[in-house]
Amino acid sequence: MAGKETKQREVQGSGADGLREALSGFVEAQVERLAEKASDKLTDVTGQLTDVAENGGSLLKVGSRVLGGESPVKAFLSEKAIGLKDSVVNKVKDAFGGGKGKSSSNKSMNIIEVLDVGVPLRTAYDYWTQYEEFSSFTKGVRSVSKGDETSSDWKVKVGPSSRSFKSTVQEQIPDDRIVWTSEGAKGTTNGAVSFHELAPTLTRIVLVLEYHPSGFFEKTGNIWRAQGRRVRLDFKHFQRYVTLADEEPEGWRGEIRDGEVVMSHEEALEEEEAAQAEDSENDGEYENAEDGDAEDEGEDVEEDEGEDEAADEDREK
Fold first, then answer.
1. What pTM, to 2 d.p., does this model score?
2. What is the pLDDT of residues 35-90, one digit of tens each?
3. What Å distances lie between residue 71 and 5, 63, 188, 285, CA to CA?
4. I need a surface site. Which of 209, 235, 237, 284 has the fewest CB within 10 A?
């Protein structure tokens, strides 16, 4: 009997110990959960206090709305909407130069494009000087009319926006480079294009533009890089047109420096013709000299042959 009672006490003791351990584990788990919740609440409170400090106390504004009779959800959403609107407006102002940062005059778009065209250097340059033809093979250029040898009026379209501007050539060196500026109601541009011979029938063209937009819609287009995409596509249209063209272009061969014409197209052609005539004359003189040398060599050979024949006759005698 005593043994049975002892075993029962041992079983009861081990069961109590297990219950205590399980209860202890449960309590520890609950304490850990409560601690995590308290930590999350503390983090939320810290974030709200940070919001109060950084965002002008939007939490306090929500509280005042609730005390005024609005529902907590409506008050919270209203304040968040106001904060979002202010954030968007500030970003738009910064993008369009209306904020406290730099003025819009300092914001520009730089466009740099390089293309290789399978034609001689002179051909590529002459095609570029035919501004009036650009509207026939590009999508952005609507019309170009030349005022004089240094200025031209352009009408172009970029997306839904149409614009016109006046372009003035500052420097133009045949088969080398063209530098210009343009001004219009929707922006100003500084541009340069240069031509580089890679092979007798391969020319590299480098186009550089610095565009300063003016006006809301132009600056919006500047954000989306609409102008750069339009230039890139039309530049490729120029490459296609020049590469597949059958006729030789009649380009403008004059020279401009500092915005002034220092050599007209006619003067440049006359100078080229004179240089070609001089080269032809020099080639003719060189050929005549070669012919004269050949005749002299022939006479010398005949004289040598005559002397040899006379010597042979003397030996026979």
1. 0.58
2. 555 445 544 544 454 454 445 455 556 556 656 666 665 655 666 555 544 554 45
3. 68, 10, 53, 105
4. 284
